[in-house]
Amino acid sequence: MTQPDLGAALDHYRDLAPRYDRRTRFIDAIRLRAIASLGLKQGEVVLDAGCGTGWAIPHLARAVGSNGRVMAFDPSPEMLSIAATRSAAAPVDLLEASAESVVLPHPADAILFSYTHDLIRSPAALANLFRQVRPGARVAATSTKLYARWLFPANWYLRATHRGYITNFEGFEAPWAVLAEMLEDFRVDTGPFTQHYVATGRVRPAVQVAK
Ligand SMILES: C[S@@+](CC[C@H](N)C(=O)[O-])C[C@H]1O[C@@H](n2cnc3c(N)ncnc32)[C@H](O)[C@@H]1O
Question: Cα-Cα-Cα-Cα dihedral of 83, 116, 5, 104, to 10°?
């Protein structure tokens, strides 16, 4: 499995950061669907992995309330500086770090992966996160995937428009495949005629203790 290129991602997001929220308005609804699928409760600790400009932070904060907590990390300082301007109804820990190396200040009850294809294709990144969560932590991932193979003109378009956002297109037909091995009660909601998916599950105990 070829691995994502963090240096290329940082270059891409350095330039894109000021325009990112406007460029990605069309995914707001599916991001909300992924957040709802986490079934967050007041008082819980939720992690926004690869939070970017922090679009999800106020929504996650509302769901966990002032006695809960949002942790969010991203390796791009330019993206993170926009996340720092969001106001939220819960305490927020913002960390400049990659998923492969981040050290979480609190164990998470739930993790959101919103449009973090590179991150969920990295077993090392997922292993580092999953060993820092509470037992049975819930996970939701949403992003883009290829259409059915015979819709290849649409897939050419997808690859062309996602260059930069994604540094490694390996696994683009089923981006959730690594998660499927690490989660129990795994489900993916998608179809051949859509570029979107929402995958959910709970971290397997064996994955959680693996070093
Ligand atoms: C398409 S943006 C998604 C941002 C946000 N989650 C959203 O829904 O808008 C992808 C983000 O993943 C971050 N990223 C890329 N590689 C990463 C890694 N290895 N660990 C953590 N974040 C990473 C990028 O810096 C970027 O901010």
Answer: 60
125 lines ligand 1 (CB under 6 A): yes
- Beta carbons of 171 and 177 less than 8 angstroms apart: yes
* Å from CA of 10 to ligand 1 middle: 9
Q: What is the pLDDT of residues 91-134, one digit of tens each?
A: 999 999 999 999 999 999 999 999 999 999 999 999 999 999 99
Name the residue of 82, 116, 121 whose CB sits within 8 Å of the most ligand 1 atoms, as the mutation to test its pocket.
116
The protein residue whose alpha carbon is closest to atom 3 in ligand 1 is 115
Residue 147 Cβ < 6 Å to ligand 1: no
CB within 8 A of 17, min separation 6: which ones?
53, 76, 78, 79, 81, 82
What are the respective helix, strand and coil percentages of the chain, to the nearest 5? 40, 25, 35
In 147-178, which positions are buried (b, 16+ CB within 10 angstroms) versus exposed (e)? beeeeeeebeebeeebeebbbbbebbeebbeb
Is residue 1 domain-resident? no
Domain count for the chain, please give it: 1
Q: 152 C-alpha vs ligand 1 centroid, how far in Å?
A: 26
Q: Ligand 1 pocket, 165 CB below 6 A?
A: yes
pLDDT at 208 over 80: no
Q: Residue 72: which domain range?
A: 6-209
Establish if 178 belongs to a structural domain. yes
- 113 Cβ inside 6 Å of ligand 1: no
